[in-house]
Amino acid sequence: MMSIKGVLFDFDGTIANTIPVCVLAFQDTFRAMNAHVPTDDEVVAMFGPSEEGIFQRAMPAHWEEALQIFLKAYRKHHDACPQPFAGIPQALQLLQQRGIPMALVTGKGPHSAAYSLDYLGITHYFDVIEVGKPEGVVKMRAIEEILQKWQLAPEDAIYVGDADYDMLEAQAAGVLPVGACWATTHTIKPENAQTSFTSTSDFLRWLEANTATQEGAKR
Fold it and tell me: 134 pLDDT band (50/70/90 cuts)?
């Protein structure tokens, strides 16, 4: 049992099943730019920098045009992901009701992140939204800065993500890495997640048992 006082989330593959949306949008963009169309695995291997950074590396002379094509394709394909994973809204509501601050730390660029959060109607849950950067987001640093803002010790917080990178960055920041293994796209090795869940219902029950209503929380 632990007393969780702050929760930080990854987005793609953790909050919603948006990785297939990202893959299709990237493939559409490379096709429209008459470039090599990457496979699904090749697209995922590019993740780390924001979309801006990916296109700056792949086609530096035309990256701004590529970004606009990508964002249009991303919005078009988002209909394939009309809502968060089942159980995630209930988890967010529980944490909000108990006065637990929530943050989003994602590698997504600012435009795609804002669109997805608005499309899914969940922006208001997050006290802090840290998006990706062209040079690549260092999640450890973002987590540390958010904890400082919240005035929380690392051992009082968790980071929930679906990739090995998420787990390693959480460990480096001193927070509990929680593996979101409910998406088929997750890439977490068992040894890298101290706690992991294959269903959001199990994750929700764990949150219920490991959080308490904070002083000043809305009733």
Answer: very high
